[in-house]
Amino acid sequence: MLKRVKKAQTAVEYMLLMAIVIGVVLIALPSQLPRVYNSANIYFDKSANAIFGRPPDCGDGVCDNTIAEDNESCCDDCGGC
Q1: More confident of the two residues 58 and 13
Q2: Which of 7, 30, 47, 63 can pair with 77 through a Cys bridge, CB separation 3.0 to 4.6 Å?
Q3: How many Cα atoms are found within 13 Å in the side-chain-facing hemisphere of 27?
């Protein structure tokens, strides 16, 4: 009587699942990469400003209603004043 080996079947199933996930990520990557890049830049710029004690920059695309270096509110980021 033949004995079925489940270990190899399970390994193949995991490899197929991993290939599908990698395929979906590679297909979605080009369309999402600019958004992720811009978001990461904004986050790290704000972190650097907080660490070094500089006021946030106007025109960074984030409406935070803070005061810039020249004591004007960031109207461009908030859709006008």
Answers
A1: 13
A2: 63
A3: 6
Structure-block tokens of residue 63:
């409406």
- Per the document, the length of the chain is 81
Q: What is the pLDDT of residues 21-38, one digit of tens each?
A: 999 988 988 888 888 888
* Mean pLDDT for the stretch of residues 27-53: 84
Which tokens sit at 26? 């590679």
Give CA separation, 24 vs 18, 19, 28, 37, in Å.
10, 9, 6, 19
Residue 58 DSSP symbol: T
Q: Which residues contact 62 (CB under 8 A, 6 or more apart)?
A: 42, 46, 56, 77
